[in-house]
Amino acid sequence: MTDQDLHPLNQNLLRLLTEKIYEKRKTAALEVERMMKDYVLNGNTAMIQKLIKVLAQDLTLSDNSNYRKGGLIGLAAASIALGKQIRSYIPQIIQPVLSCFNDSDSRIRYFACEALYNVVKVARDAAMPYFSEVFDVLSKLCADSDTNTKNGAELLDRLVKDVVIESKSFNLETFVPLLRERIYARNPFVRQFLVSWIAVLDSVPEIDILHFLPEILDGLFVILSDPRLEIRKACESVLGEFLHGIVNRPGTVDYPAMVNILITHSQSPDELVQFTAVLWIKQFIKLAGPKMLPFTSGLLVAILPCLSLESESRKNIRENARQVNQELVKIIPAESEAPQEATDDILTLDLESIVQVLIDNMTHSSIPTRLAALRWVYSLLDQIPRRTFKSIEKLFPAVLKALEDDSDEVIMAALEDFAEIRSVSDQFKLLHNSAQEDHKIQGSYFRRFIRDLLTLFKKDRQILDDRGHFMIRQLCLLLSAEEIYSVVADILVDETDPVFASAMVEALSAILLTASELFELRASLRKFDRKLQQGHVFTKLYRCWAHNSVATVSLCLLAQQYQHASDLLGVIADLDVTVEHLAEIDKLVQLIESPIFTHLRMQLLDPETNAYLVRTLYGLLMLLPQSEAFENLRRRLDCVPLLQRVSQGQSVPPSDMVAAEKAFFADLLQYFINTQKRQQASIRHDRKSHS
């Protein structure tokens, strides 16, 4: 380079600027600074531009590494000398410096940091138009392999943050794409760098980064899962501040844009990520309310499995998930709320997806999750029955399957769902007053449920033995016991499997004679006044109870039809009485001593009026072998005053039944005989087949 090319530099100054020794370059830089100050003082813009051109283009952009070092230190010195005048020369100064950050020589990258630091320190807000380029450089330098360069970048980073905080021209819309582009970086230094920048920007009141949160939220949750504790803590703090800002300004937040991100991360295997996501979801539901309804199925996918978390470390996740589940149920508007606003909210529910999620979770390995899914079905039937019924064909078999569960709580929830189906069908009946509509809902689903329940008991007798009593009692508690027993009897009367039919009637009879939930049904049976009432529950039950001879006798005792009970015992004596029959009679004798039959025992005080009762009890006594039950019943009969009269030759008084009543009970007796004959014939046939 000639002196003319170097002007206003000279060969001697050039030699010093490009020396390998830093101290000599620093001496030359002081001379450059002095020269630039003179030009500024004299207002000599031409010389200012020429000096910058030589330092920037001829030195900093040179292929010679020593020239580049000299150019960088020279531009730093020139920037310091320019002071406020630097605004006019920012492009010519900053671009050459930025180009040096891609240099393979770590020393040049370090000197570029030093030079840019001085440029930004002087330029301040004037450097903001180049923020994107500076940020790009910093995001790379924070992970630089050279320690000195990395340290220099940290100093530069702190300065740039200070400038941004005080800047009036910082463009957040330009910055967010840069952030979004880098936020999925795996390098821990880059992650830490990005989190620190987000934290700084969020702390500036004039900068509303919350508005752009949907664009970076997913990346923040990814960073939150970093294995390094310091990064996790920093990211957790940033997310906490964002959530605090959302709570304080709920009306300015775009909830729909973020909720799916939270749903995804609430299923994370990382405890901190999962807890944070669930916590955010809880706040979103509280703050946004019905706006969250379109995302109900996704939220259930996220929340229901969290209810099953058992480890102590995930206790907070489980508790927050439980609260989310409760809050989500609350925001579902009822169909009964006529205003258009409520109707619009209901329409945002993707009920088909919700139903599928619930069905999937009914078979979850954990009881709390299965339980929550079933309770959701109840809530949907309660709040939006019309829309829910459109999916009843999918829900029905899934809820029925829940009756095979090992948990009493789950079974109870399933029974409550079926009771609600029954209740909703009544509502539809009142609303439509249509026989066709009523048949479609009431006949199709309630009766179908009872039929399927009986099929379940038939398929798996263990369920009947272990849980049958519990299920039937709970159904009677939830619905009308008379209705339950009437429908069961109506279906079971045509049962072709005699063994199952007898076992089922035995179970139903035991519940009828012992459970407090069936008090009203027992009272109704006692009021059967021997008039011809073909539709009375006694008649319905009798035709079904005929599958089990001893149960039929107990039904007659409960309904106070003692003459017919006595007639039944005469028939039973001619049947093939087995050990099982004797065991059932033994149980009946024990029940006669229970509170249920207190009225029967009191009637023994009037043997003349209740002669057939005494005769029936003696009949039971004669059927029994001499066992403990035999002795108990004999002691009871020893207390009956009638014994004295019988011993004096008095006979049982004749029946006071009218002809029509006799015909009615004769028909029942014949039905009983025919049923028992068919049963015994079927049992003998089965025995032959097995032989």
From TrEMBL:
Pfam families registered for this protein in UniProt: Vac14_Fab1_bd, Vac14_Fig4_bd
- Which part of the chain is the Vacuolar protein 14 C-terminal Fig4-binding domain? 462-640
Q: Name one GO cellular component term.
A: endosome membrane
What GO biological process terms does the UniProt entry carry, in alphabetical order? phosphatidylinositol biosynthetic process
**Known SUPFAM superfamilies for this protein?**
ARM repeat
Keywords assigned by UniProt, alphabetized: Membrane, Repeat
Gene3D superfamilies linked:
Leucine-rich Repeat Variant
List locations, semicolon-separated.
Endomembrane system
Main subcellular localisation:
membrane
Check the record and name the InterPro entries matching this protein: ARM-like, ARM-type_fold, Vac14, VAC14_Fig4p-bd
Keyword flag Membrane: yes
Task: Sum up the protein's function in the record's words.
Answer: Scaffold protein component of the PI(3,5)P2 regulatory complex which regulates both the synthesis and turnover of phosphatidylinositol 3,5-bisphosphate (PtdIns(3,5)P2). Pentamerizes into a star-shaped structure and nucleates the assembly of the complex. The pentamer binds a single copy each of PIKFYVE and FIG4 and coordinates both PIKfyve kinase activity and FIG4 phosphatase activity, being required to maintain normal levels of phosphatidylinositol 3-phosphate (PtdIns(3)P) and phosphatidylinositol 5-phosphate (PtdIns(5)P).
State the similarity comment.
Belongs to the VAC14 family.
Oligomeric state and interaction partners are given as:
Forms pentamers. Component of the PI(3,5)P2 regulatory complex/PAS complex, at least composed of PIKFYVE, FIG4 and VAC14. VAC14 nucleates the assembly of the complex and serves as a scaffold by pentamerizing into a star-shaped structure, which can bind a single copy each of PIKFYVE and FIG4 and coordinates their activities. Interacts with NOS1.
What protein name does the entry list?
Protein VAC14 homolog
Biological source species: Hypsibius exemplaris (Freshwater tardigrade)
